[in-house]
Amino acid sequence: MNRLHLGAGCVLAGFCILAIAGLLWVIDVPAGRADEINISRVTEIAQSAQQCPDQLVFDPTSGSFMTSDNLFLPTQQGNNCYAWQMFIAMNWPVSSSWPGTPSAAGEPDQNVSVENWGVPENPTSPLTSVPVWGSFKDAQAIFLPDAAKPTDWGVPQAVPSGCKSDKMLLGYPAGSAKILTTLSKNAVNTAHRFHLSSGTRDTQSDEIMEATGGWLTDQNGNLVFFERKVGKVEFDYIMNNTLYDAADQMRVATNADGRHPAGLSLPSGKFLRVPPTEPQGQDALGAFEIKAAWRVLTGQSDIYDRYLTSVAWLKRPDTGECSQEVVGLVGLHIIHKTDTFPDLIWATFEQVDNVPDGQATLPPGGYSFNNPNCTGPDCKPNQPRIDCNDQNQCKDLYPRDQPVQVTREQALTSEMDTLNAGVAQKIASQTGGKSVFQYYKLVNVLWDGSPSPPVMEPGANASIPLRYGTFESEGNLKVANTTMETYIQDQSCDFCHANATIAGSDTLASDFSFIFRDAGSAKNPSLVEEVKQFMEQAQ
């Protein structure tokens, strides 16, 4: 490891900061080891919550806009700043060539300037642009019944049966309207019939369950819909190894063919020592997974200008009902694998009106998931919607149109509040106060500060729980989103994801990703059946 020793000749504070910032581009600084190069105090100054907003890049033609690794300092402050940079890049409008040109999926529109980023053409109408991540591949379009081959990258998901498709949906280009069919963050293949987070049997499709505890209903009585998206590098990895079939997941995870010594290991974004001079190609970016939560906003046009909005077909998996609605983004996970973060960096964001977070005034339209005036036994915060006995027989505790009283159990730190306020002000100043993205906040970032990541990760035959090092977060808080981990806010992302397995095994790790669990198998259907039988025997 290279070490940097500051000589006595460096006496001017301003010069020191500039010199160190420049030198950090050209040395290898392992995550969490800033103290070993004697810059802990300078790191705090150079990457503080106050300075981060001015370091963010809002230019899609810049090489520092969407990057394969963290260009900021390897500290919590630097990773918080990188999380915001990912948020900006992922929510930039996708190339206007998509969906007509499928290969343009995942590419930011370089003709959009920051002045127009997130600014509705009409504040009482939904946005007509699609964010970069919105063009990513739907997980449910990858893991199909009987392990059928998925459609190519950038091909939009087909409108579900029972939904009438129009050429133009409220101004949306044909083919780019969102399709939402799950009320669960972790919907799985119904053939598996058990919860990802708990390993318990389902009495109903996991599509209507949140991470655990049931569904989520907002204060208007509308169910929240979820979606999971996969970036191009991860999609290509799945396709090149036919990992949409459980039999091939087993082959790769165990290195049965002698070609996968790393086991099932998602591609990492390339390590960066200097800012790229031009935008990186998608093949260099590494694996991205996106998880999003949406609430119905139809008929509430007075608050459209506070949300990333979309037109969506909503098909309820429990009733089969299908409707065309305007939806607003309320929660977003961005998960990225890089050389610096071999066990991923986990960033989670929320819309600012979700729950009370010390705001001085009630937001327009009230809180989405909290009623400050709620009284009575049904107002106890964060109550699961279902109850399961020792035989894993589950029953509904509440009607699905009854609002959930949600509160945040892990309060944001003052450092995070300062950062979010600064970023919101920066976005407002760049967009004349019109961007919907000034109404989003970073909740926390989870990352591994271990100085010595494994040489080969995760490795053939890696088993759960998958552990590399020590995960860190802002304030050492549990990292949870009130819309996606409503009922388990006392656990961080890694707690569950360390136990993610491939579809054909109850022990073989899938590199922290739950999406592989959705696969069936055409080559060896008994693999999934064996796991199903194992779960039945374990009850």
Key features of this structure:
9 helices, alpha+beta, globular, 17% helix, disordered N terminus, 12% strand, disordered C terminus, nine-stranded mixed β-sheet
The poorly predicted ranges are 1-46, 187-209, 534-539
State the helical fraction.
10-25%
Order of helices and strands: HHHHEEEHHEEEEEEHEEHH
Quaternary organisation of the protein chains: single chain
The largest sheet is: 9 strands, mixed
Measured between the Cα atoms of the first and last residue, the distance is: 50 Å
User: In angstroms, what is the radius of gyration?
Assistant: 23 Å
**How many E-type strands?**
11
Overall average residue pLDDT: 83
What is the general shape? globular
Number of helices: 9
Q: What share of residues are in beta strands?
A: 5-15%
Structural class: alpha+beta
What does this structure look like?
- This protein is α+β, with helices and mostly antiparallel strands and about 550 residues long.
- The chain is about 15% helix and about 10% strand.
- The chain has helices spanning about 15-25, 40-45, 50-55, 75-90, 230-240, 245-255, 415-430, 495, 525-535; strands at about 135-140, 180, 225-230, 290-295, 310-315, 320-335, 345-350, 385-390, 395, 440-450, 470.
- The strands form two sheets. Strands 1, 2, 3, 4, 5, 6, 7, 10 and 11 form a nine-stranded mixed sheet that branches.
- The longest helix is centred in the C-terminal third of the chain and has 18 residues, at about 415-430.
- The chain is globular.
- It starts with 12 loop residues before the first helix and ends with a helix.
- This is Cytochrome c domain-containing protein.
- It comes from Thalassospira xiamenensis.
